[in-house]
Design a protein that fits this description.
Oligomer: single chain
Number of domains: 1
CATH topology: Pnp Oxidase, Chain A
CATH class: Mainly Beta
Strand order of the largest sheet: 2-1-5-6-7-4-3
Order of helices and strands: HEEEEHEEHHE
Shape: globular
Number of strands: 7
CATH architecture: Roll
Radius of gyration: 15 Å
Structural class: alpha+beta
Strand content: 25-35%
Helix content: 25-40%
Length: 137
């Protein structure tokens, strides 16, 4: 990832997450984010369309900050039974979303994770380790 993209992830309040159906249909939604150690985390309802698509194939495209913001392709996965990351995410959200999390969203997120109606998602940015097809090495 470029330094510009890393800085955008560190400062953005939202990312626009595109998930893909098995047939390749796209769906894009804004979500909060926590950028930590080169990975992106967020929580969402387990029964949402985006979580079903993530569970099905994991392919995502992320646009940072706005729909046409800096972007990357990635792999998303469910993370269950990670209270360490859940606690760290909530602490980061408290700082980043200082108004909404203490008043309402923090309790909602914590309860959803505890009741297993929500899930923690990790997005791993994909990097190309080889030249593009047709490009000389």
């Amino acid at each position: 990832m470029t330094l510009e993209l890393i800085k955008a992830l560190q400062n953005a309040k939202y990312m626009y997450l595109t998930t893909y159906s098995r047939a390749g249909r796209r769906g894009t939604v804004p979500v909060w984010l926590w950028y930590h150690d080169g990975l992106v985390y967020f929580t969402t309802q387990r029964d949402s369309l985006k979580t079903r698509r993530i569970k099905s194939n994991g392919r995502v495209t992320v646009h940072v900050g706005k729909k046409d913001g800096p972007s990357f392709e990635g792999r998303a996965e469910w993370l269950d039974d990670r209270p360490d990351l859940e606690k760290a995410l909530l602490a980061a959200y408290r700082k980043k979303y200082w108004f909404l999390v203490p008043l309402w969203m923090g309790r909602s997120i914590r309860k959803g994770l505890a009741d297993r109606t929500s899930v923690l998602i990790r997005v791993t940015p994909q990097t190309s380790s080889s030249p593009a097809a047709g490009t000389p090495a």
